[in-house]
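ok, trying the design again with the full structure, not the truncated one.
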């Protein structure tokens, strides 16, 4: 196994794609340090020492009742509508509602698989809805859950509607073979038209996870998913400590940093200061972006 990993390391250093046998060896290894070294090499080939992060204001999808528009702090790089719409009309109305007050801050929202469901699973209806959402002010679809996609077809529909999906995620906490999902994404090749893959589950599992499992999953994603630019970890879900370790195991993008720079606990505990300090502590350079992946 060690010899095989050394050979694979040579391929990674040369920027070569891994073949099916290499993938099997990487997926089976329990040598976390060797796997982490492979992932770090892959990340540095793509991004050097740069790590991006985005400060996100999450807004719960309105339920149709009269609600004031929340105040959007100037520090936010993204306003994200969270929740599943009951139908196309609710989705469009929600985007208009929040986009009217977002100024230059990009508005994202929804899961692509949810939008496909409310459209009855037809390409024509989904394309029409995505076009209306873009016209209403949506900058990107926030996510698409890998376990709910048989292939990249819906991603391509979003691209053709000029409303691309920001990231692939893993949503369901139970009965999900995460390694199979990593392989699925890698198998889509260039048809996986997203910028980011977040390989850690977004839903909270009933069984507690371990740091070993999480950083291994991040490293596997970086080594094997060479068709997607960035590997992401969620700051709000997984916390600063795991996020910092994940950066040394292949992650290069940090999602959902709070946009509220409260001085309640001192300036060093303000979210922006904390994320930049953690990135520096990993010997990397922090770069803030917005929801369109533009540098701020």
């Amino acid at each position: 196994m060690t010899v095989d990993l050394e050979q694979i390391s040579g391929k990674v250093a040369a920027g070569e794609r891994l073949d099916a046998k290499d993938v099997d060896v990487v997926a089976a290894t329990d040598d976390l340090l060797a796997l982490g070294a492979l992932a770090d090499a892959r990340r540095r080939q793509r991004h050097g020492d740069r790590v991006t992060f985005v400060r996100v204001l999450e807004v719960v999808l309105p339920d149709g009742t009269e609600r004031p528009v929340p105040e959007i702090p100037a520090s936010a790089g993204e306003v994200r509508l969270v929740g599943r719409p009951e139908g196309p009309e609710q989705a469009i109305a929600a985007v208009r509602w929040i986009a009217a007050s977002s100024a230059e801050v990009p508005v994202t929202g929804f899961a692509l698989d949810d939008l496909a469901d409310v459209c009855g699973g037809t390409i024509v209806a989904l394309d029409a809805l995505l076009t209306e959402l873009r016209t209403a002010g949506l900058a990107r679809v926030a996510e698409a859950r890998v376990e709910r996609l048989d292939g990249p077809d819906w991603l391509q529909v979003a691209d053709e509607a000029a409303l691309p999906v920001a990231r692939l995620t893993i949503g369901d906490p139970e009965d999900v073979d995460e390694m199979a999902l990593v392989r699925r994404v890698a198998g889509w090749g260039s048809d996986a038209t997203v910028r980011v893959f977040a390989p850690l589950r977004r839903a909270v599992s009933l069984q507690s996870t371990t740091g070993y499992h999480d950083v291994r999953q991040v490293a596997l994603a970086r080594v094997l998913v060479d068709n997607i630019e960035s590997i992401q970890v969620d700051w709000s879900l997984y916390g600063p400590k795991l996020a910092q370790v994940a950066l040394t195991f292949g992650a290069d993008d940090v999602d959902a940093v709070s946009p509220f720079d409260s001085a309640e606990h001192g300036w060093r505990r303000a979210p922006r200061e904390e994320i930049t300090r953690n990135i520096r502590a990993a010997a990397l350079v922090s770069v803030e972006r917005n929801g369109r992946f533009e540098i701020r």
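Keeping the full-length input from now on. Residues 2-288 form a domain with the TIM Barrel fold (CATH 3.20.20.70).
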